[in-house]
Write a structure and sequence with these properties.
By secondary structure, the chain is an alpha+beta fold. The chain has two domains: 247 residues, GroEL-like equatorial domain (GROEL, domain 1, Orthogonal Bundle), CATH 1.10.560.10; 150 residues, GroEL, CATH 3.50.7. Helices cover 49% and strands 17% of the residues. The chain is built from 17 helices and 19 strands. The strands form six sheets. Strands 7, 8, 9, 10, 11, 12 and 13 form a seven-stranded mixed β-sheet that branches. Helix 1 crosses helix 3. Keywords: ATP-binding, Chaperone, Cytoplasm, Nucleotide-binding. One of its GO terms (cellular component) is chaperonin-containing T-complex. It is found in: Cytoplasm.
Length: 527
């Protein structure tokens, strides 16, 4: 063949290309599938970079994000898990596993000489059918707040049961539900702050209404303030000394230096006075505050907090209803934040500043305690998953049962569709239903159960009308998901179904992979 590409560029055609994409995608799915379900295991990710950071995690998206992958198809799967994480927060593993299973089934069909486009058409029909099956079966308890709250609790517990928090899942589910109920339907998780403090055990974690800033209160300043008016600022409060670096001042005597310093001090004093003129009793600054202005603030009885981290500041402004100010010339235009009480609290060894009774009732802080950083990081990720799912559920209140139940419901309907559909598409539709059943199979496998036996029992159960059967990994048998209180959010399941189908479709369409050689750099250097 005449050379079409430059050196080092390679192309894979037809069968070879399909092999590469499928193998890549399926192996990624196999990588994360052991983390699926309540008995899923965790992975340790160790980076070989500086610091050799170690992450212990069960979250599909986190695992895939940290992998550096060469295979193009695998990258598509990594992407969908990322999107799933951003969209709904949970189901990151299921998405990848489902897409992997769809491809595995498609591979078998292609072996029997069915064209990929036919398979895609079948998958499309099947996905549509599965989605309708789900929305028909979804329950909606929006009208009954009590029931809805218990739904939320169940969803939180189901989400957490596959994570590190599964031991104290009731405790954490309560925390998550309380925090989300506070949001009153907004999916903005900014106003829930999570603070991690090593020490204690996971059980010592608690939810605190109000806002906690991870800072100590300065020296000689009021330790508690009631009815605080807070000015949140991002401004330099360090101009009372001459900056040594970069400033060249020529003077002919020492006295002149003193004059300059005096002038600087005056400037600082004016600035502080301007700030005090806002009628505040708490000043939070993102940059540092030198000891001179700090003294001035302390004399005025104002609590000055310096070096608050940026997230903290933005969130504090949001929560107290203030805005971040950087100039203080016209006090009218600056919005101050308010809260009922500011005081110092101790968590473990550390002192923190606690703002309670804030303007936005929806703000709260969850303080996580745990044995080590790794435990805390993973706990934060798990809690974040739960919070995302809950806030999505508050908006779209439809709820499904969990434990492989939705997959079986979908599989049953998809199977029926396959029987009705003439032509080769029906094979693809059948394959789709097999792929859906792989999820309960894997949940059972991870628990070390006899999956084939269990799944056939499940299928038999589901052929009765309105069955609630799912995999009960605790007893290792088919159980009633409603009694066990295992529920999932409709939104999450729907997102899993649709993204997985689309990703599989995309990879199926591939028939050629062209890898381009990187451009050489030497030529440019030579000129």
């Amino acid at each position: 063949m005449a050379r079409l590409f430059k050196d080092e560029a390679t192309e894979e055609k037809g069968e070879r290309a399909r092999m590469v994409t499928h193998v890549g995608a399926v192996s990624i799915a196999d990588l994360v599938k052991t983390t699926l379900g309540p008995k899923g295991m965790d992975k340790i990710l160790q980076s070989t970079g500086r610091g050799r950071t170690v992450t212990v995690t069960n979250d599909g998206a986190t695992i895939l994000k940290s992998l550096h992958i060469d295979n193009p198809a695998a990258k598509v799967l990594v992407d969908i898990s990322k999107v799933q994480d951003d969209e709904v927060g949970d189901g990151t593993t299921s998405v990848v596993v489902l897409a992997g299973e769809l491809l595995r089934e498609a591979e078998k069909l292609i072996m029997t000489k069915i064209h990929p486009m036919t398979i895609i058409a079948g998958y499309r029909m099947a996905a549509e059918c599965a989605r309708n099956a789900l929305s028909k079966k979804a329950k909606d308890n929006k009208q009954d707040p009590e029931k809805f709250k218990s739904d939320l609790m169940n969803i939180a517990m189901t989400t957490l049961s596959s994570k590190i928090l599964s031991q104290d899942k009731e405790h954490f589910a309560t925390l998550a539900v309380d925090a989300v109920m506070r949001l009153k339907g907004s999916t903005n998780l900014e106003s829930i702050q999570i603070i991690k403090k090593a020490g204690g055990s996971l059980k010592d974690s608690f939810l605190d209404e109000g806002f906690i800033l991870d800072k100590k209160i300065g020296i000689g300043q009021p330790k508690r303030i009631e009815n605080a008016n807070i000015l949140v600022a991002n401004t330099a409060m360090d101009t009372d000394k001459v900056k040594i670096y970069g400033a060249r001042v020529r003077v002919d005597s020492m006295a002149k230096v003193a004059q300059i310093e005096g002038a600087e001090k005056e400037k600082m004093k004016e600035k502080v006075q301007k700030i005090i003129a806002h009628g505040i009793n708490c000043f939070v600054n993102r940059q540092l505050i030198y000891n001179f202005p700090e003294e001035l603030f302390a004399d005025a009885g104002i609590l000055a907090i310096e070096h608050a981290d940026f997230d903290g500041i933005e969130r504090l402004a949001l929560v107290t209803g203030g805005e971040i100010a950087s100039t203080f010339d016209n006090p009218e235009s600056v919005k101050l934040g308010h809260c009922k009480l500011i005081e110092e609290i101790m968590i473990g060894e550390d002192k923190l500043i606690h703002f309670s009774g804030v303007e936005m009732g929806q703000a709260c802080t969850i303080v996580l305690r745990g044995a080590s950083h790794h435990v805390l990081d993973e706990a934060e990720r798990s809690l974040h998953d739960a919070l995302c799912v809950l806030s999505q559920t508050v908006n779209d209140t439809r709820v499904l049962l969990g434990g492989g139940w939705p997959e079986m419901v979908m599989a049953k309907d998809v199977d029926e569709l396959a029987r009705k559909t003439p032509g080769k598409k029906s094979h693809a539709i059948e394959a789709f239903s097999r792929a859906l059943q792989a999820i309960p199979t894997i949940i059972a496998d991870n628990a070390g159960l006899d999956s084939a036996e269990l799944i056939s029992q499940l299928r038999a159960e589901h052929h009765k009308e309105n069955s609630n059967a799912g995999v009960d990994v605790i007893t290792g048998s088919v159980g009633d998901m409603e009694k066990l209180g295992i529920s999932e959010s409709f939104k999450v399941k729907q997102a899993v179904l649709l993204s997985a189908t689309e990703a599989a479709e995309m990879i199926l369409r591939v028939d050629e992979i062209i890898t381009c050689a990187p451009r050489k750099r030497e030529e440019r250097m030579g000129h």
